[in-house]
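ok here's DUF2794 domain-containing protein:
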Amino acid sequence: MTVQPPTPFPIHNTLQEQVSFDRKELSVILALYGRMVAAGEWRDYGIAALRDMAVFSVFRRTAEHPLYRIEKRPKLRTRQGMYSVTGMDGQVLRRGHDLAAVIKVLEKKLIRPID
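and the structure:
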């Protein structure tokens, strides 16, 4: 009977990096979120860190589909920009390289006429 050494697991293939928002990006997003919550427009959010993208979803109520999704896709960094804002129907509202400039499309929803 011969004893064989254990076969090492290929760690680099099984555990792949996740894409996530860094502290600076989250502070920009959460500043907008705080203003929209204070205005009564948004009530809940969700964050997902996936293998190819990170998503910040905004909800009016907890149990419904997200109103908007702020996505970060690093693979699109050299093309259209890695940040995008997607509406409830799946339409991309804005895309670009600068997160603050991309989420300005959502700040326009905050401005309303006074009755």
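+1. The mean pLDDT is 83.
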